[in-house]
Every structure is written in C-alpha cells, then in structure tokens.
Amino acid sequence: MELMFDMAVKAAVALSDPLRLGFLALGVFIGLILGVIPGLGGLVGLSLLLPFTFSMDPFTALAFLMGLSAVSATSDTIPAVLFGVPGTVASAATILDGFPMARRGEAGRAFGAAFTASVIGGLFGAVLLGISLPILRPVMLAIASPELLAICIFGLSLAAVLAGGSPMKGLIAVCLGLIFAGTGEDPGGTLRWTFDTLYLYDGFRIVPIALGLFAIPEIADMVIQRSAIQVDSKAKITRRDQWLGVKDALRHWFLVLRCSSIGAGLGAVPGIGAPILDWVAYGHAARTEKGAQETFGTGDVRGVIASESSNNAKEGGSLVPTIAFGVPGTASMALILGAFIIHGLVPGPDMLSKNLDVTYTLVWSIALANIIGAGVCFLFANQFAKVAVIRIGILAPVVLAIIFLGAFQGKNAWGDIYTLLGFGLLGFAMKRLKWPRPPLLLGFVLGGLIESYLFISANVYSWAWMWRPVTLVILLITLYGLLRPLINYYLTKRRREGPRVPFSFQLQTDKLDTNAVLGLIALAIFGGAIWASQDWEFRSFLFPRAIGTVGIAFTLIMLTFHLFLSPRYIQALKGISPQDRVQAERAAQTGGGSGSGSGGGEAGDSTGGRHLDLVTDFGDLDKGTIRARAVAYFLWCFGYFALAAVIGLMPAMLVFMIAYIRLVGRESWQMTLGVSAGTWLVAYGLFHQVLHVPWPQTAIGNLWPVLRTNPMFNFF
Amino acid sequence: MKYLTTLGLVAAGLMAFGITVQPASAQGFYAGKQITLVVGASNRGTYAAYSRLLANHMGRHIPGNPKIVLQIKGGSSGGMVAANFIHNAVPKDGTVMGITQQSIPVSQFLRPGAGRYDATKWGWIGNVSPIVNMVALWHTAGAKSIGEAKGKEIKIGATGKSSPTFIYPSLLNAYAGTKFKMITGYNGIGGLNKAMEQKETEGRGASWLSVLTRSPQYISENKLFPIVQDGLKRDPALPNTPTFLEIAKDDTQKGIFEVIAIGSTFGRSYFVPDGVPAERLALLRRAFQATMKDKAFLADMKKAKLPVNPMTGEELEGLIKRVLAVPKPIYTAAAKAMGFAK
Asked: Residue B225 forms beta bridges with which residues?
C-alpha cells in the first residue's frame, strides 16, 4: 500500500515536469483534432506519432501518447451532435439524442452535458485503474474465456433493448451483424464469404461500416430536406446553454457513474472496446431511466450523458489487460503496448511492482488529459456550434468528402469505399423503414469474439464452462434482462385486456412494400450464407449455419406478421388497446407524419418501447420528391466514387465539392471555390502530408505509373 | 474575387514549395525525394517496429538523404496485399521498397496461384534478422522436451489455422509423435500468454522473440520451455533447443522442414520490385549495410529488444536459389503437412 502511494507521488512529480506536461498537452490537442474528423481517431494519431516517441524518456513518451489516446472520445461528440456523424466509432450512440437536440437548437446544452459526462467518465476510469492496481492480476486471472464469452453474450442481449419497439427487425439486424462479422478467414483457416476478394480475407472493418450505417443516411436526410441542421437558424448558442448541460450531467450523477463503470468494465474486455460500449451504456440507460422508453431517441439529454460518460471511461479500463498481461484491450492499446516494448517495459508483474511509477504515469496522464481535453472543448464549442446554421448545399458535400477519406482509413483500400456505400444504402433503407441499426453494429462487433470464445470454452472445459460461478452469474443476469419485458408483458396484458380483435390470416396486398423487400433481401443473405458454407469444416460452418437458420426463422416470422396479419391484430397481440392506439395516432399527427413506411404493427407500440433510433420528419414533402432527392443523393455518392477510381480520391474530392456546391447548392463561384479549395487544402495537409495515406490505385495511375513518383502529388 | 486571388496565391505558393523541395539532381537521384517503405503487416507487430527504426536511420546513409515514410498494408492479408502491390503497381525507380511476411517467398510455391507476385525476381536489399519460430510448453504441462511430450495430451493455444502458432505444433503431431490438442481462436501473443497463466492451455508457438520482448520473466522464472525451433541452424538465443531439421527422420521430412526453415530465415527482409536499376539497388544495399553498423540504429534496436543478425542482399539471393532448388514434390508434401492443400 505504501509502495503504491510512493509510486503514485513519484509519478506525479515526474509528470509535473513542464516539458512532459507540454507534450501531454500537445498530445491532447492532436487527439482532439483527430477525434473531430470522422474516421480518424486516437489509433491513427498513435501510429503516426509512435516513431517520434522513441527518443523520449518513457514518462514523456507515455504521457504524450496517453494524452492523445484519452481525449478523442471527448471531441468526437462534436460532429455526432452537429451532423449526426460519429467522430469516432465510440460516439455513434451519442447521435441518437445529441443530433435531435442540435436540430432543436440545443447543441450547446448537448455539448455541455457531453463534455461534463466525458470528463467525469475519464476521471472515473483513471481512479478505478489507480486504486485497483494491486488486485488487477488476480482479478484478470479469474476472467478466462468462459467469463469473456458470458460478457459478450450479455452485450449481445442488449440488442433486445436497442431494438426498441421492433423486436423482430432488431433480431434480424443482430443476425445480419453476426454474419458480416464472420466474413474473412476464420481461426479454422476457412475463407468465409470472401468471393476471392483479397479485401475480405481479414473481414470488414468497423470504421466504414459505422460511417455507412449512421453518417451516410443522416446526410441523405438533410439533403432531402434541404435545410440547415438547426431548424431555427436564429437561435444562438450561448454559454448559458452549455451551463445548462453541465447542470444536466451533474443532476444525473448516478447515471454518469453507472455508465462510467460500464465503460471502464467493458473497456477491460479485449476486443469489445469503443464500438459497442457506448451502446451498452445507452441501452442500460434506456432500460433503467424513468420514462426513457418514451423520450430516448428524440433528444433526451440523458442519452447523451450515458453514451459520453462510458466512452471516456474505457481508456482506464482498456489499460488493465494491457498492463497486467500484455493483452491490448483495444486497437489503440496495442500501439501503446508497442510503445512499452520500444521503451523496454514488459507488461505483467513488473508493471505492478518495479515499474509501478510508469503505470501511475499512465493513470495521471489519463486524468489530466481528460480535464484539459474537456476544457478546450468547452472553450471552442460555441465556435463549432455555428456550423449548425451553414446551408446544406455547402455542408453536405464537405462532410461527405471527408467521410470518404475517413472511411478509407479502414484498410486503405477501395473495399473501404464499397463498404461505406453498401452499408450507406443499407443504413438509409433501415432508417427509412424503422429497422433499428444499433443491433447490427452490436452483432458485428461481438460476432467474432463470441465464436472464438465459444469454441475455446467448449474445447477446454466442454459443458463445464457454463457452471463456472462468474460465468453463471453473468448468464443469469442476461437471461433475466431478456425475460423481464416478456414477464411484464404478460402481467400488464391481463390488466389491460381490451375488446378482442378477430384473428384473420390473409395476404394484405397493401403491405407488399419496401419493408417486405428488405425482409426478402435479409432472407437472401441468410440463405446465401448457409448455401456457401456447404464445403466448410465443422468449426467453420457451425456458427454461420446456426446464425443463418435463426436469421431465416426471424425473417419469416417478420414477413408473415407483416404480410398476412392485420395491423390491428398485431397491435392487440402486443397488448395495445384501441384507446392507446388513438392516443398514439394523435401523438403521431402532432409530431408530423414521420416517414412513409412506418410499417405494419410496429408503430405506436407501448409495451416493447418506442423506436430507439433516429427518425427524420420530412414535414409535408411528398413521397415522389423524397424518392427523387434520395436517388440524386446516392447518384452523387456513386459518382464521386467512380470519379475517384479514375483520377484518384484526392483529385476527385476537389471536383466533387466544386460540382456539388455549384450545381446543387447553387452558390456563387467565389463561395464554391473558396470552400472547396479551403477544405481540400486542409485534407491534403492532414491526410497526404501528415498521415501519408497510401492512396488506392487508380485507372490513370495504372496507365501512367510515372504519376506515382512525385511525393507531393502521388494520389494515383 | 477576393477568394480567387487568395486561391491563386495559395496555388502559386504550393508550386513554389514544390519547386524548392526538388533541387537539381546534382546530389544524385535520391536528393529531395522520398522513399516509401511498404509494410505488409499490421502497424503493431515487429514487422512495423523493425521498419520504423530502419526508416528512422537508413535515410542518412543514402546519398541525398531521402526521407523514408512507412505505408502500412495491415491485417492478416497484409503480406499478400503488399507482395502483389509492390510487384505490380509501384514505380520501379527505387522510390518504393518493401517488407512482407517472411513466409511470402516460400508461400509462392506452397500455394501456387494464391498471389500475383514472383519473389524470386525481386531485388533483395538485406535482412535485419531471421526470426525464429518455436514451440514451447508451460511448466504445468509436465514435459520439457519433445521426448517427454510424446503421447501426452497437452493443450496448445493458437490464433488461427494458417498461423505459425498452429502450423508448428501440428507438424510435431504429424512427424514427432506428440498428441497436442490444438485450441484455436486466441487473440495474439498476449491472449496466448494469458491463457497459459490461467491454465486454459499448456503451451504455445510463435516466435521466441515474442517471449523475449513480452514476457522474459517466463524464462527467468522457469515457466516456459522451448522444445523445438525452426531455422537452418540453432538460434544464438536458443542454443539448447533442437531445430526441426535435427529431428527429421527421413529425406522427405528433411525437405519439408527445410522449406519451413527457409521461410523464417527471410525474417525481416527488405526488397525492391523487379525492374529497379541495378545501380540504385546497389546504393540501397550499401546504405542498408551501413545502417546495420550505425551506432544510433543499434542503440535503438537494443532499447526495443529487437535482435539484429543482419544478412546482405547477396545472401538473400542465395536463399532464393535454395527456394528454387527444392523439388516440387517436397512443396506438395509440405503444403499438405502445413494444411494449405487438401
């Protein structure tokens, strides 16, 4: 204990050196910038700056790197709230409530709440790490593969919460996510669904998928509406708004603490990390907070608080397995681990005894970085928030152009852009048809882990894996979480038995709509996935076939309900009385008829909770206009892509912005060229000169390889 | 109009900048140029670590002092992607060099048709160090050598079937009478180490370097015992552990083990694509050799605990000749033993 205290003080003294503090602040500054840009994040910064730390002493190097890594989850809130585009994958859940707040003119409040939640979460993670150091290794040793499997299953079960009022569609989305996760070479050596494409050998990357699912549809909706983000452009963001947000976060301190512990805890589970812990925290809040089922997803500040407190707390958590065993908790941690090794630090017992002062440097760095990072964000949030009133004709092409570059950070290959656009279309369809998207992301992140841990557990412990005490407890909690809504359903159903709706089973011809088409596509994906697995060996086919079969079952149930049962019967089945229905309809009317395909029995459902995903209200736009504008938008996206394949991503970016701002935005030439050139030069400086992004091969580059020789302009 | 003027000024400035960084070629080809070093592995592992340190120091030894920047082609498919990319799609003027997974030159013959490259035509610059793979048993396994392990069911952790962590123990199962039970799906070296400490598994493969850098206490505390290593001769760091070649029982086995040993001998080797002018390759080779003796480079490598046992480009050419000399049936048998062919 005394040693711990001494070492903590020693580390604090070492870190208080002005030079080290300066590097920490520099790291924070870089981390904040990278966090704001969609697709970039701490990981990119770490791999870029790692070489510069070789010549530093370990304290300075780690302060610099931790500073950078700890704050990208603070600033990634800014694009999430302002555009509905996640700055890093860690802030995807922030969008659900942060973005509607910005549209209402409450961006300042959302920022205030988010930054406060971030800094508390970050400090919580650091403190937890700091005080748990002595018991770290024994605790981690108790968490073997079966426990990890149980934790992952628990995470997956939250998809049921995140599916909100559309349980079947949510389950189908989970299965789709699990199937996408299985793509690529599996531990059994089989190439699953790679279609002989080298890109797919090691599977999909999360960055283009997250940007595709969430960012592309959000921009699409803004383009279709042709409005700035903030509906009332006169509302100004003031310090008072931010202060309001701070008070929100402090008032919900217990929620902040709960979500921080979720973030720190799940951050310590290798492989889970940033992409889903914000969703888990969000799902937890949606299940436990009062009235959350009604207000989450419409701009409830508690949703922002839940997501943001969890994603900053992860940093402390993910250091745990890194320090204790050299098992990096996240991809960023793998690079921090690389820095350990470069500086001759060996993860394991040494970090908790001989090198405890280095470990405490990490703890202090996380704490300080979070304070500095949130402070800077508070200072500049007002400036950022002005973006919300920019005309969409300018904003959309700029954000879109950067998203393309950001998605390309997945694997630096054309496949990233295909993935972005493919999932962009899927995300757009899902959003319009009210299929919840978060479960898909959850399935994608957890699929590979669950499969690996399941086989390891079964091979090592056979069935006994389930009876290990910790595993059993987690599994029982999961089961209770899943069954609770069903129990509640039966309890409330008896109480609110309304007039019986006659059962009728006949094809509802008006339901042969896009919802049915999406269902058929899902069916084709599951069927195709199973069909392709026929030559695989047992270890490779077991999981895909199980998922595929379950997916087919869910899709068939969904389609049957959708096509053959009357909406009234479905609602009666869900326990909604005619009175409820009238109320729901009235609410829908006052809220403006949202969307066209609100689909079958899913609307206005009160037992399963409301739809936990963004819904755009297109006001009085008619269907034809919406469709035409959506088609035009995607044509622009694919046009950008096609042009990039010929002349390169960077040159195409410039052409795309100029063409779009001039032709669609109808801006003056000065504005068009000024904005395009300015954005392009910043992107050039960052992506080409600083990050040295290896641009993909293009048609003209293949024709004239000489174009690739000049390092200033080798975009081809 | 103001915007246009500004834009014009910026463009002019950029052009001026472009001109100043490209002075006349008086100082030779590389003056003012930049060399791209393509890395066919993830940015976390030792391929990237070796490459970063090499890039930091090698530029100094090339006339004109070009800057060397890394281009990571990551992921488990990175090795193949980088090989295909460098072979087919980069300028062949010496401004692009690369490193790919050590198994790539041999893999061309083990899995014919899998890639679109021909490593035998590449211009080899040099090798910082061969990286020896091994199989080691945890102290709870109750065996410290192949002999003691024979016939016992010992659980060995592995990442995936195409990884050396799976292939090497499987070779022992096939040829040395061991009965290792392979558990795949672990996440990297850290995951394999943790599984042994949790007594989920009782041994692992991968490089000996990964033990030296990540968990040297396993050696000092007598917790992990290497039972076999690959490579053409015993590694100086593992003087008492037999090589695969030493335990071969017949010529076919010897041939198969040799194929595998050659792969790991390529270690951390750098190359330029076919078609780079000979004098530039010679320049790069000289610079590489000079870097291997550079005190600052060696100090950095020592700090990072990365071994330096350099081989020249000429020696690597000799190694390629050995790759070509292996008879085809041996490749077929080796591919089968390693699980590449059905």
From this structure: B137
* Separation of alpha carbons B232 and B132, rounded Å: 10
Structure tokens at A628: 């035409």
DSSP assignment of B206-233 equals SBHHHHHHH-THHHHTT-EEEEEE-SSS
List the one residue out of A618, A525, A610 whose CA is nearest residue A170.
Answer: A610
Q: List chain B residues with CB under 8 Å of A413.
A: 81
Q: What is the mean pLDDT of residues B179-201?
A: 91
CB A608 within 8 A of CB A287: no
Neighbouring-strand partners of residue B179: B153
C-beta of residue B106 within 8 angstroms of C-beta of residue B138: no
Residue A327, by phi and psi: left (phi above 0), alpha (psi -120 to 50) or beta? beta
pLDDT digits (tens, 9 = 90+) for A481-490: 888 877 877 7
Which residue in B3, B36, B159 is closest to A673 by CB distance? B3
CB contact under 8 A, B72 and A186: no
Q: Do A145 and B304 touch (CB under 8 A)?
A: no
Partner-chain residue, chosen from B6, B78, B303, that has the shortest CB–CB distance to A342 = B303
- CA B246, B249, B253, B255 torsion: positive or negative? positive
Backbone angles phi, psi at B126, to 5 degrees: 165, 170
Q: What is the DSSP letter of B277?
A: -
Written as six digits, the tokens of B289 are: 């050799």
Mean of the per-residue pLDDT values of chain A: 85
Residue A234 pLDDT grade (very low, low, confident, very high; cuts 50, 70, 90) = low
User: Which residue, chain included where needed, has tokens 């290593």?
Assistant: B229
Place of tokens 């006949």: A506
Distance (Å, rounded) from C-alpha A119 to C-alpha A73?
10
Task: Take residue B73 and report the two structure tokens written for it.
Answer: 């082609």
By the CB < 8 Å criterion, does A480 face chain B? no
The more confident residue out of A540 and A508 is A540
Of A330, A359, A518, which is closest to residue A435 (Cα–Cα)? A518
C-alpha A591 chain-centroid distance: 27
Q: How far is the alpha carbon of B212 from chain A, nearest alpha carbon, in Å?
A: 9
Q: Hey, which residues 277-306 in chain B have their CB within 8 Å of chain A?
A: 300, 303-305
The complex scores an ipTM of: 0.83
- Checking A672-675 for CB contacts under 8 A at 24+ apart, the result is A673/B3, A673/B4, A673/B7, A674/B3, A674/B6, A674/B7, A675/A394, A675/A398
What is the interface size between A and B, counted as CB pairs within 8 Å? 179
Rounded-to-5 percentages of helix, strand, coil across chain B: 50, 15, 35
The tokens of B233 are what? 């001769």
For residue A18, what pLDDT is reported? 92
Q: Is A351 on the interface with B (CB under 8 A)?
A: no
> Of A77-81, A326-330, A495-499, which range is least confident?
A495-499
Of A648, A616, A627, nearest to A714 by C-alpha is A648
The pTM of the full predicted model, rounded to 2 decimals, is 0.85
Lowest mean pLDDT among A191-195, A229-233, A385-389, B21-25: B21-25
Conformation bin of residue B155: beta by default, left when phi > 0, alpha when psi is -120 to 50: beta
Contact B81 A198 (CB under 8 A): yes
Question: Residues near B228 by Cβ (< 8 Å), separated by ≥ 6?
Answer: B134, B135, B146, B168, B172, B176, B241, B242, B243, B244, B247
Of the listed ranges A202-206, A422-426, A629-633, B265-269, the least confidently predicted one is A202-206
Please judge whether A455 and B55 are an interchain contact, meaning their C-beta atoms are less than 8 angstroms apart: no
**A536 touches B at CB < 8 Å:** no
- Residues of B within 8 A of A706 (CB-CB) are 91
Written as six digits, the tokens of A478 are 């999961």
Note the pLDDT tens digit of each residue in A604-642: 333 345 677 888 777 778 888 999 999 999 999 999 999
